[in-house]
Specification:
Layout: H1 29-43, H2 58-82, H3 91-95, H4 99-105, H5 109-119, H6 137-147, H7 151-157, H8 160-168, E1 181-183, E2 189-191, H9 192-205, E3 224-225, H10 227-235, E4 237-239, E5 246-248, H11 249-259, E6 264-266, E7 277-279, H12 283-289, H13 297-324, E8 329-341, E9 349-352, E10 356-358, E11 361-369, E12 384-390, E13 398-406, E14 419-423, E15 433-434, H14 440-448, E16 452-460
Antiparallel strand pairs: 1-2, 1-3, 4-5, 6-7, 8-9, 8-16, 9-11, 10-11, 11-12, 12-15, 13-14, 13-16
Helix pairs in contact: 2-4, 2-5, 4-5, 6-7, 9-14
Length: 463
């Protein structure tokens, strides 16, 4: 059976009468004592557990104090808006005894607000949120922006260049593009290096390349360059790594190579062994004090011998090419490597060309990525290796020299290397040899292409 107790609010005089004791006439004998204890606990007249001034329940006093504190804060805010002095205590606050009355009409509205905040559970006024070190970062930033003149002031405090960096940066590496800028069909920007890397990864994983933001399909035919973003990025200021001055990105490279007085330079006598490196503005002083020009001929002979060895290695390749061009039987053809997959449980990518005829013989070229490792897409360093296979039968061993060069329509850079092998019916395949590309970036260019187009030269050596 539910008990209903009347709990009237505070009267105008400020002293609440004692609430009427609930009737327990209809309660049973076993529940009568429990009813008396419950009524006494609520009214504060029996047991002393909930008693207080005027017989008012403690939970009622806490509720009235909270209402009085809120009323004091509101009255203080109204007086400040009207341009008046300290807020006068309101009627409920005047009726509060002890600390509550001092909180509502004490030394000033600031003290009242602090006391009211303590009564409301430690809450602070809205204007002090930014000064609280324990407040969330967004709340502190919002409070700081409000103090600086609102959201417009907070946005204006950030430079336009810094805001443009976050708008024009690549969605993959989050850096400003240095060269070409590509965009997907939804307009998300990617620098040339990341765009090629995404296409190469998709080729290695046998998947369709997608935009990292919207997951739409990307390819060289679906994506296009954004010339407006490229021009905007070229005009953004960038800091020189030597003198720390700001320059437009389009002029920064020229400044660092030719104009910066703090750029790193080498002594002009480095060819005879001077190891000095330093800023450009100290070059003149160093060259005036450099001791290498005063060395004797015997001291310079060792350095000159090293220079001659390096020069011979460079000239050996060119001399070999010119000597091969004088052979009687020379053949070349355009080769196109097409991607395929192995039949293993974990398929691997490899390339193979159609059969081609050079020097009246049938040949095939094969290539593989990172020497057919299990997951080449997880490696940042990528290489291509190839082998030349003789498919036709020969009556006598066929001694040949061959080399691969970039095709006429590719922008990949390949250093020419001459290979030598003797083909026969028993040994008709060369070992896998590294394709002489410069770095992994050039390898990604080849992997991102639909096919790899190169040019094969074969020179038959006559005995």
């Amino acid at each position: 059976m539910a008990l209903k107790f009347a709990t009237p609010g505070p009267p105008a005089g400020g002293v609440a009468p004692a609430p009427a004791r609930p009737s327990i006439g209809r309660l049973g004998v076993g529940t009568a004592s429990r009813g008396r204890r419950l009524a006494g606990a609520l009214t504060g007249r029996e047991g002393g557990a909930g008693g207080g001034r005027g017989g008012r329940p403690r939970w009622r006093r806490r509720r009235w104090r909270g209402e009085a504190a809120v009323a004091a804060m509101m009255s203080g805010a109204e007086d400040r808006e009207a341009g008046g002095g300290p807020a006068a205590p309101s009627a409920p606050s005047a009726a509060l005894p002890g600390p509550a009355a001092a909180a509502a009409g004490g030394p000033g509205e600031a003290g009242g607000a602090e006391e009211a905040g303590s009564l409301l559970g430690g809450a602070r006024p809205h204007g002090e949120a930014g000064a609280d070190p324990d407040a969330p970062p967004k709340k502190r930033l919002r409070a700081a922006g409000t103090g600086a003149g609102g959201p417009e002031g907070a946005a204006g405090s950030v430079k336009l260049e810094e805001r443009l960096y976050s708008v024009l940066c690549c969605t993959v590496c989050l850096d400003l593009p240095k060269a070409s800028v590509y965009q997907c069909t939804n307009g998300h920007l990617m620098c040339a290096g990341c765009f090629i890397h995404l296409l190469a990864d998709a080729r290695l994983k046998e998947e369709q390349a997608t935009c990292p933001n919207c997951r739409c399909e990307i390819s060289k035919s679906l994506c296009c360059r954004n010339l407006a973003v490229e021009k905007a990025v070229s005009e953004l200021p960038s800091e020189c790594g030597f003198c720390m001055q700001q320059f437009p990105r389009s002029l920064l490279e020229r400044h660092q190579k030719e104009e910066c007085q703090d750029r790193v330079t080498q002594c002009k006598y480095k060819r005879i062994g001077c190891p000095w490196q330093g800023p450009y503005h100290e070059l003149t002083v160093h060259e005036a004090e450099c001791t290498h020009p005063t060395k004797t001929g015997n001291e310079l002979m060792e350095i000159l011998d090293e220079m001659d060895q390096t020069r011979k290695k460079e000239m050996q390749l060119y001399n070999s090419i010119f000597s091969l061009l004088s052979f009687e039987k020379i053949g070349y053809t355009e080769v196109q490597f097409r991607p395929y997959r192995t039949d293993d449980f974990i398929t691997r990518l490899y390339y193979e060309t159609p059969r081609l005829t050079v020097l009246n013989q049938t040949w095939v070229l094969k290539a593989r990525v990172n020497d057919s490792e299990r997951n080449p897409n997880l490696s940042c360093k990528r290489t291509l290796s190839f082998q030349l296979i003789l498919k036709s039968k020969v009556n006598a061993p066929l001694e040949c020299s061959f080399l691969l060069l970039e095709g006429p329509y590719d922008d990949v850079q390949i250093r020419p290397v001459i290979y030598h092998f003797v083909f026969s019916n028993e040994s008709n395949e060369t070992d896998y040899m590294a394709l002489p590309i410069l770095d992994s970036v050039e390898c990604n260019k080849l992997l991102a292409a639909k096919n790899i187009n190169l040019r094969l030269f074969i020179f038959q050596i006559q005995k």
